[in-house]
Amino acid sequence: MVNSLLTKTNVITQETPVIIDFKGVTFQFPDDESPVFRNISFSIRAGERVALYGPSGCGKSTLLYLMNRLYPDNCDGDLEGSITLWQRDAASFAPGEINHRIATVFQDPDTQFCMPTVEQEMAFTLENLHVRRPEMETRIMETLEMTGLTAFRKTTIQTLSGGMKQRVATACAILMQPEVLLLDEPLAHLDPLTAQQFVEWLDTLKWPYPLTIIAVEHQLDLWGTFFDRAIHVHASGDLPIEVNPVRSSMSYPKRVSAIQEEVAFAARNIHVHVKGKQLLKDISFHLQRGEIAVLAGPNGSGKSTLLKTICGILKKSQGMIKSGNMLPGYVPQSPEQLFVAQSVREEIRFSNNTNEEEISDLMGRLRLNEIEQAHPFSVSHGQKRRVAIGAMLADKRPVLLLDEPTSGQDEAALKELFHLIDARAKEGFAILIVTHDMTFAAAIADTILLIKDGQLTGWFDNDVLWQLEQVLEKHQLVAPIGACSHV
């Protein structure tokens, strides 16, 4: 967690100009029956650091896209009320004009990459701003150094982990030298130590003018005292605002292990090579029926690669995998990869392994009833993830692989996810979870597997790991608040 030593050099007063102002704003997508939000009002001053938080699907990301003018022009949405940017009607800005002043990092960084390598992506960003070539080189070098990405200059972006992609996307936004930086859940795919370092680094950026930072965030506890204000986004009216918000880590109920003696899954001496590069080396482990295991480690250590290998998306070069008569159920980091149906309810129903009563129960517990007729691609990032998790839970495969299931989820959704996973374990399912959320890991896991540089480096009982500070540090992990940790 970021400590209270973080300092803010920019002082916000009533004389500080308002640069973003929403008055009585109502916004509705063309195919929706009701608005995302109705008659909301708030303002943001130059140099402020503001968090937008609230339930998944409440419209936080939509607010960002109204600020950067992506909406309503690019979605045919219906907008009522007044939005002004720098005391000017937002609609008066020419297409692309506002992007010189407001830079955005989206939830899924893959959606904003256009070029193959880090260097080419940064150059492409500057070309769109009509920056001259001599200046390009200087700005790219300075930004790579600032963000700690110099070693990745020539790297192909699609070979990077989700967390590293997020850092590259943020670097490209900073490269634009904007006045406002919009961040849509920037910590969601970062390991705990990298997330902490990201916040600390963002706090120390030196700009020749006040940089306004607005972030959509569920995990306010990871930001410490970074934000000046937090705006609680909901469906209507003036939005409640908290000054100097600080959150403690959320708590979960005590869980009783349901591990049985029977082995449900086993991997032996797994090696994976792709294009001459070794991604996984000599990995062996097993899961028993009823066991919940968390796979943790630094960004790029091989966590998602291992899950893809287990379910057959990546071909192993050597080794053996045993998982009974059915392939494991798999929920990837990008849940859209699973969708095959035209509505959320049809997606949950698709497997035919669950009756209507069970489907209705899953829909209710995952808070999907209000979007049951929506297309799975049209809902929020957090809702997409819950749809994919619901579909795989409905499929009832005896081994489940969940890659970052907590990403984009609010507190209520996380607790319901906790209960659903716990219930499946009690039914004898074996579950392997990749997550950077150490609070969730400490609450849900029986065992924690550590991975680094493509190799398994530890296999710990949950209550033992948090006492091993040096092991945690080596794997870019931070013990959750309340866990026992000592040297």
SSE diagram, text form:
Layout: E1 18-28, E2 37-45, E3 49-53, H1 60-67, E4 78-85, E5 88-89, E6 102-105, H2 118-128, H3 133-147, H4 162-175, E7 180-184, H5 192-203, E8 212-216, E9 229-232, E10 236-238, E11 241-243, E12 263-274, E13 277-288, E14 292-296, H6 303-310, E15 318-322, E16 329-331, H7 344-349, H8 356-365, H9 381-395, E17 399-403, H10 411-426, E18 430-434, H11 438-444, E19 447-452, E20 455-461, H12 462-465, H13 469-474
What does this structure look like?
- The chain contains 13 helices and 20 strands.
- The chain is of the alpha/beta class and about 475 residues long.
- The strands form four sheets. Strands 6-7-8-3-9-11 form a six-stranded mixed β-sheet, sandwiched between helices.
- Helix 2 crosses helix 3 (about 135-145).
Shape: globular
**Radius of gyration, in angstroms, nearest whole number:** 23 Å
Biggest sheet record: 6 strands, mixed
Q: In terms of per-residue confidence, which ranges show pLDDT below 50 for 5 or more consecutive residues?
A: 1-8
Distance between the amino and carboxyl termini: 18 Å
Our count of helices gives: 13
Widest beta sheet: strand line-up: 6-7-8-3-9-11
Portion of residues within helices:
25-40%
Structural class: alpha/beta
Beta-strand content bin: 15-25%
Subcellular location: Cell membrane
Main location: membrane
GO molecular function: ATP binding
Membrane topology: Peripheral membrane protein
